[in-house]
Amino acid sequence: MSSSWGRSITEKAIRALIAFIVLVSLYIAWRFEWRMALAAILAMLHDVLISVGVYSLIGFEVTPATVVAFLTILGFSLYDTIVVFDKVKDNLDKFAGSRTSMANITNVSMNQVLMRSINTSLAAVLPVISLLVLGAGVLGAIALREFAIALLVGLLTGSYSSIYIASPLLSLIKEREVSFRNFRGSHAVGAELAHMVLSGTATGAKSVRRQSSTTDGTQTNILTPTSEALLTHPPRPRKKRRR
């Protein structure tokens, strides 16, 4: 491979990456908001850097198949992130005025789409693994090996970046808004988070007794339902035995 060809490929790839980032940022900002666009682009750049770094450590040459793999990584990373952000947008409307933190809304959204993201990632990774084992290992196709390795690393990094990078970044950015500033540091865990995921409300969900005052000054105990009560069925009545 000549140095001029590699330089030309690098320049074209950089120009294509810049154009891709600009167009995607405009679309996400128009469809959602600019904060989501910023978090999505940062997560996507993370995926590309990790993939390029692993590819460089292995020592493979940059080929057209590698460029195609990197472009595919960009699309998959954004797809998984958009799925999470779409659920965040729905929950922002659902929890509007509920006086809860952005961290809680983000956690609820991630819990609701976690299995979908895992299943999508597995469905995308399994064909790539078979391509790597059969195409590169059995048939000995070098082009398939270079393409499959870059794609496999990108798919794995894109799967966790949408959950562990893009969503926390969005939460950190959104918490600076006036509507969420007073609730920073509030994190629902355990039964409270399960109640928010299941019911879509920000009311308390821990199994604690709340004291409520009545008009005559007495106090009554109200038992708040737990997530276990929401997930289980009442016991079936026993049949009477015949004597």
UniProtKB/TrEMBL annotation:
GO terms for molecular function: protein-transporting ATPase activity. Its main location: membrane. Keywords: Cell membrane, Membrane, Protein transport, Translocation, Transmembrane, Transmembrane helix, Transport. Residues 204-243 are annotated as: Disordered. Residues 204-229 have a biased composition (Polar residues). GO terms for cellular component: plasma membrane. GO terms for biological process: intracellular protein transport. It is a multi-pass membrane protein. The keyword Cell membrane applies. InterPro entries: SecD/SecF_arch_bac, SecD/SecF_bac, SecD_SecF_C, SecF_bac. Residues 2-175 form the Protein export membrane protein SecD/SecF C-terminal domain. The chain crosses the membrane at residues 12-30, 37-58, 64-85, 122-143, 149-173. It holds the Pfam family SecD_SecF_C. It is found in: Cell membrane. This is Protein translocase subunit SecF. It comes from freshwater metagenome. The lineage of its organism: unclassified sequences, metagenomes, ecological metagenomes.
